[in-house]
What we know:
Elements: H1 6-11, E1 20-29, E2 35-41, E3 57-62, E4 66-75, E5 78-87, E6 96-97, E7 101-102, E8 105-108, H2 121-124, E9 126-128, E10 133-138
Parallel strand pairs: 1-10
Antiparallel strand pairs: 1-4, 2-3, 2-5, 5-8, 5-9, 6-7
Amino acid sequence: MVAVPAWFALAGTSPAVEQAKVTVTVTDLRNANGIVRACMTRDETKFPKCRGVAGAYAATAEAHAGSVTFTFTGVKPGKYAIALLHDENGNGKADRALGMMPKEGFGFSRDAKVQMGPPSFSDAVFPVGAADQKLTIRMRYLL
């Protein structure tokens, strides 16, 4: 028979999964129109679109000229990337001019650069461990 420490027996049969809070401050919003949408995922095949992705975290906030803040809670350890959209007209999608150029603001974790399309997951990825994190992401506008 193997002795089990008392604290382990009291905690149940499996150790708790560590979870963190990720707080994101979005800066450089050009106006207070519409809403800001944020999506945080660890599924690199679905980035930057997170709809229907298991394990993705999503949040929205009313836009404010200047900045807004989101907090994702209960985040399991792993590698994540964040995509932001300033949905100025509130239609739930990223509007484009000439089919390509974003008409609304966007941003990505690690301020990943946009070159002929959204950045790759590897350009925007950041690690999440047990400790809470604070990130700042700058909103960008092309038009």
